[in-house]
Amino acid sequence: MISSIVKTDDYITFLRDIKQRIQTAQIKAAVTVNQELLRLYWDMAERMVVKQEQTQWGDGFIKQMSIDLQEEFPGMRGFSERNLKYIRQWYLFFRKSDSIGQQLVAQIPWGHNIAIVSKCKNTGEAVFYIQKTIQNNWSRAVLTHHIESDLFSREGKAITNFQTTLPAPHSDLARQTMKDPYNFDFLTLREKHDEKELENALVEHVTKFLLELGAGFSYIGRQYKLEVAGDEYFIDLLFYHVKLHCYIVIELKAAKFKPEFAGKLNFYVSAVDGLLKTEIDNPTIGIIICKSKNDTVVEYTLKDIHKPIGVSEYIITKNLPDDLKSSLPSIEEIEAELGGNDE
Which domains does the chain have, with CATH numbers? Predict the structure, then answer.
């Protein structure tokens, strides 16, 4: 009979180490299997393409090949006619890219590769999404969302003064966290919405908002109160970025950018640096997300501001007609009406 042992702290620590080693080995095994599978797919596709170029075989060749391979390897997935066509498409898409691009594709799952070659226009865009997937461990659904929202053309495009207000490489990392424009298509607002409506809608859909902001953003609160010399001030939205290790203040403007917006945000950033920032935190960053902007006006505005600030636009393509939206009661109106019934 095997006797059990007392689970001492030493045993628990030992067991935790063993578990971590097993998990690491599982991850490495999964990565190795994926890489070997993609090497097989690449070799198959190369041979298929060469054979079709040398012969008069059409797509019927792929259908017959699928039947024969599934018959020979009944327990092995990946030999359907549809997947063989994806394999060929994937090879043709990447075969003219450099060796780095070809090495990167083996580091993400096959399903991610299919999403990329099905939706990306060129290898430069594809490599961007592959690198982002590797860096952020995106699921296929998240990857697809970012491709469809055209993150490639929006990331790092905001106008900022980060280069002069933040040390390198922190400035480059901060710039990459910003987009222009931000895509708020998960909201449905009237065309003439105000900041309060926009803020309410973003907080109501905070999970989708965080997905649009990008990896690293941690939501702290809305209308965050700061007390300065006895006076109270309220930040629209406050975040902490776990990769940049800094607070991020976001001000929402449902109007065209005005220079005075930056002055107000500059004060908020200074206040957060003075009241919340600790020695282990990097300088606080401010972001203005407005309905529209004149890039030249923004550049002149930020030129002599010494706190890191960026300015972006937002887009919503599914606006409700103003007359329809105004006919819908707000949450406050519903609560007031219910409250009145109780009296």
Answer: 9-148 (no CATH), 158-326 (3.40.1350.10)
